[in-house]
Specification:
This protein is α/β, with parallel strands linked by helices. The chain has a single domain, classed as P-loop containing nucleotide triphosphate hydrolases (Rossmann fold), CATH 3.40.50.300. About 45% of the residues lie in helices and about 10% in strands.
């Protein structure tokens, strides 16, 4: 384990993002050192995923939340580059459909949860319901909730209720074998501006540009407060939040990889023992195939 334990949002504490450095590089003196560590962890993750699948008692759910341009896509791409696609699923939760709006906000999440032995990745998640919806409360009106017909009806109690619902939901998942790792990629406003300008200036990155991202930048302070509330209210012993410095992508990816590997290594993962009947079948197959070992 190479990450500073201080990046864990202490359960029950009030989180102020000003207390967390966005441009930290930890124990690494150079980018090359970090990339070497990540390469080693990618190799470990490949073997651990195979054992997770064979053990078939745990599922791993990785949740990524961040401001725009923080590097969620790139982190997922790099850290998970060595895993078997058959045992890994990535979901990106966009605006809910009409069908999804006719259900509670967790309904669409249940359908995407990873099976035992598999890794599920949420690029944005149900936490959008206490982030973007909190910053833009008018979005809540689309959900047709009883007693809420205008933004004047939306009080702090609705967010407190949702924090509690999310905590209960995650506790249920953990108690039934799903390990949850939640990553908040903590990006500075200056670095976000730099990355937006790069998207505009580099033709190969123009496709990433969205005017909506620029507009949302006007709500930076509102989002920071929403993230602080979310981290404070939903970081628990069973599903803690990791606040990852995101100004240096190479460091961010390495730390995320280290946490995932460390978590899987801490599980009692074992390959299933072969019973007597199976051993006899193996011996029979050896004879048929002419194996003299």
């Amino acid at each position: 384990m190479i990450y500073d334990p201080k990046i864990i949002a202490l359960p029950g504490s009030k989180i102020s993002l000003k207390d967390y450095i966005t441009n930290d590089t930890g124990v690494f003196k150079t980018k090359e050192e970090a990339k070497k560590k990540l390469k080693e962890d990618i190799s470990k993750l490949k073997k651990l995923q195979d054992k997770l699948y064979a053990h078939d008692k745990y599922a791993l759910l990785l949740i990524f939340q961040a401001m725009d341009a923080a590097g969620k896509d790139g982190t997922i791409k790099h850290v998970m580059s060595g895993v078997n696609p058959q045992g890994c699923q990535v979901f990106s939760f966009k605006n809910p459909s009409a069908e999804e709006l006719d259900h509670d906000y967790l309904w669409r999440i249940y359908k995407c949860l990873p099976e035992r032995g598999r890794i599920g990745i949420f690029n944005r998640s149900y936490y959008e319901e206490v982030l973007i919806v909190k910053v833009h409360p008018e979005l809540l009106l689309r959900q047709q909730l009883p007693g809420i017909s205008s933004t004047q009806h939306i009080t702090n109690s609705i967010w407190e209720l949702r924090y509690n619902q999310i905590n209960s939901f995650e506790r249920h998942l953990v108690e039934n074998g799903t390990i949850i790792l939640k990553f908040f990629l903590h990006l500075s406003r200056d670095e976000q501006k730099k990355r937006f300008l790069e998207r505009i200036s580099n033709p190969d990155k123009n496709w990433k540009f969205s005017m909506n991202d620029i507009n949302e930048r006007n709500y930076w302070d509102d989002y920071q407060r929403a993230f602080e509330d979310t981290l404070s209210k939903t970081s628990t012993e069973y599903a803690p939040w990791y606040i990852i410095p995101a100004d240096h992508k190479w460091y961010m990816r390495t730390i995320v990889g280290d946490i995932i590997v460390h978590t899987l290594e801490s599980l009692p993962l074992k390959y299933p023992k072969v019973n007597k009947s199976k051993l006899e079948e193996i011996q029979k197959a050896r004879k048929i195939l002419g194996d003299k070992n």
